[in-house]
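To: structure desk
From: M.T.
Subject: fold request, one chain
Message: Could you run this one when you get a chance? Sequence is below, nothing fancy, just the single chain.
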Amino acid sequence: MNTKSIFYLFLSFCCQFLCAQNYIYKEFGITDGLPSLETHQLHQDKNGIIWIATDRGVASYNGYEIKTYGVGDGLTDIVILDLYPQKDGTIYCATFNNQLFYFNENFKGFKPYPYNELLQNLKSDQHINSLYVDDDGNMHIACERIFGKFIITKNGELLEKPYKNIESDIDESWLALDKTDDDTFFLSYTLRQTKNKKNTLYFPGGKHFYSNAISLPGNQYVVFTDGSNIYIATAQGKLLKKIEHTKLIVSLKPIDESTFFVGYDFGGGVFLDIEGTVKQHFLEEESITDFLIDHDGGYWFTSLHSGVFYIKEPTIQFKHTGISSPARSLTKNSKGELYVGYRSGDVLKLDAKHQISTVHTSNNNAKTFVEFDTIHKQLYVNSLPHFFREDKNGRTKVFNDSLFSNYTVKLSEPTEKGIFIAQYGWIGHLTQDGYKDYKMSYRIHDVVNWDDEIYFGSPDGAYLFKEGKISTLMKKDPLFQNRVDDIDVNFDREEIYFASLGAGIIVYDKKTEKVFNITQEDGLCSDIINEIHIENKNEIWACTNFGLNKIKFTENNTFQITGLKSSNGLLNDGISDVEIIHDTVWIASKKGLMYAPKQLFDAKTTTNSYHLRVKAFHINDSIATKEKLQNLSHQENRIEFLVEGIHFKASDELNYIYKMEGLDTKWYHTKNRSISYPSLPYGKYTFKVAASTSTKLDNLTFIEIPIQIHAPFWKRTWFIIAVIASIIVLIYLFFKYRILSYNRHIIRELLRLLVKKVKRKELYFSFKEAGKEIRIKTDTILYVKSAGNYVEVVTEQKNYTIRTKIGEFINLTPDPLEYIRIHRSYIVRIDKVAEKNSKEVTVNGTQLPVSNSYVTELDNLIF
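Reply: Done. Structure tokens follow.
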């Protein structure tokens, strides 16, 4: 027995005793932006931002980047131990030196608690342990190693203070749990002989100082700890259970009505129920200081030594098998046991309890294919150069024919007619009675058989082999010209499915001979399909290059598509194969073997809200308020919106869908969090924006922001009326005093200038250059010069190159009458011409040629 076989034997023995769950973690550390690996507490605010307390400041994470804050940002101390969120959105931060500061969820900076001097006599080991603000604005503060608590009014008056340090009277220590205004509990220490208060529960406190208390949703149970034991009681104070622990307990968090989270020092974190049963165990070797479930259902953990850990989808787990090679092929037997073929050539079996045994080991780094024949209860294994069949009794038949040692591309799904082997230049057909092969001039990727027809896929598309003749399926539909890597038959639906590389799943209806395809536009993760798995008549699975999809066919040949990819919690996106055992989906990928509950693929209705908000408004590059947007001058027309949607699972997939109603005629999509309008005309608008992981408009929640830009004063009604009235008066005066004929030219010039002033409008020419959008005033343009498919626009300040033909330029400008063409390569602006003759014109000191074809046009230019 070789070393590898001994290892697998040892591994299968060990797996009988291992029950740890293998979650897929993402770790955030200093290189990701955290100020420290010592993290203490988490909080997600109403905007979706996650706040992290560390021993080197406060950090916030929005799904895109981590931002850190220190003493220079208003913190009263660099070491933050606890976060205490309140109902009004205020979050108080307790520091190592017992100095409080706070911030609001609508973050506008940190502020020190104004009455910190009342806490300045606390000792270094009397850290703040509980804090809440009641409905009257009074702050309640309890500390370790102190009997009693502080009660400080919002005006700084000390209503109550601790009455004794916990030293010699430690045996008399009790825990007092005061019911707060929001039905949670505030924990403090008290003496046994203290008079009981209404709405307060009392329990023996023991000799430990790290205490915490929570109430479970539904307010039926209270859970508290003295640091070494966990106690479960009713909301009325009846103690139900004591759970002893050997490790120090550092955190408690409620999960549901009967489950809570416990974090241990060097013991990870667990989900416990009220009976003390461990439901799930996380990060067994870490010291877990806090736990959070975010709005996407992801799990977050702070640790004392390793930063922050994140699980995107807790129901997806990675199966450690001891093989680091990609999982390539999956199949199941009649007992519901799973066979896994690896890229390394090895084959493992997982029984119903996920215990591992070795079926085959190999020293060859070649793809391994496994298929189980449910009719004859036989397992086929192809691991180059081995090809064998194992029956239900474990007896093995090895096929030694030299053809089987060739490179195998695929094993087909076994049927009553046997199994097909796809190889370079060959199709092999193995039955219980013998073997037949067909030589082909193709590289065969997969083969299926239907009656007397053999369908096969190749790099050049799909083909039919019938009665010794080969015909291309491209004659039925051009879709079949795409590379096909897998083919499967759904006999119940009388359909054949082709996994293509580029056209998704090609469906061929044998009964009607209709062909259609299911693509990424329909909801597939990708149009590159590696494998198709038929679960039953109406459910098939597609393994794609960017995730796994389930397609459920409904009436009238419609279908629903759901799926998972790395953004939903998969270890990676390149999926090789899938197998369904009971309600578990087993997934083979390039990074190993994963499994998830099938219900994770059930169709869900999503709100697509993603905690979307508009963080800031910029008007002409200056920060402005939302109210200001409804009262803008015509010069305040460059507006930028900074938007932010929180989607921790896949922030890079989040699209912002927006439209400026009153200006835009369609919806726009961008992944950029900055949306700008460089030059809005005056008028009334409504800016609408939503966030989604797709580009569809269904079920979106839009933020709407009204905007009004006032017209310039010379375009307002009162000004126009005033000008018209002035003109009438001037005309009247002109005729009335016509005897002053020597002044008539002056008056006429004044009238002309006045009319020109009324009609004045700055016009702009907009274009793109080097990926930038640029606009210039048209009255700064001197001339335009042709350069093939480009034109050079020469202005008073600089030159620009635009991709257009010179003949199209005048049609693009807002004031075409201001230009005249003097040459097939030159257009000049009329008011910029300083000199002219039949051969050339002078513009800004530059002589430009005049061609004979355009001399007549030049004659119309009168100085």
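Reply (cont.): The mean pLDDT is 88. Let me know if you need anything else for the meeting.
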